[in-house]
Amino acid sequence: MLIGELAEQAGTSTRMLRYYEAHGLVRPARAANGYRRYDEAELRVVREIRELLAVGFGLDDIRPFVACLRAGNPSGDACPDSVAVLRRKLAEVDDCLDRLGTVRRHLQEQLTHALATRPQ
């Protein structure tokens, strides 16, 4: 399939596909006329990239998932490097939740104090 077809099927733009290619995540074959040609495997890779980006992964975090798919695994999270990224990202999310919990408790205390000491 051509780049426009891949973009449509993957729900992205041709510009984003070129961006992924520039970062080494997508690897089109080149036709004799220089056009980019993609197969179903690249569609799977692009869908994986899009899903991971949607939940906050960066391009460097995505590389192990793409490598895992390219190695012939049924999913990008089947490899040890991908699992390591998932563990690290989960730890980052847990840390953010802890910090948000602290901020929430502080705000609740401030609100309680403000309501208790406001003039009647």
TrEMBL record:
The keyword Transcription regulation applies. Residues 1-68 form the HTH merR-type domain. It comes from the Bacteria. Keywords: DNA-binding, Transcription, Transcription regulation. CDD domains: HTH_MerR-like_sg3. InterPro entries: DNA-bd_dom_put_sf, MerR-type_HTH_dom, MerR_fam. Pfam families: MerR_1 (PF13411). The keyword Glycosyltransferase does not apply. SMART domains: HTH_MERR. This is MerR family transcriptional regulator.
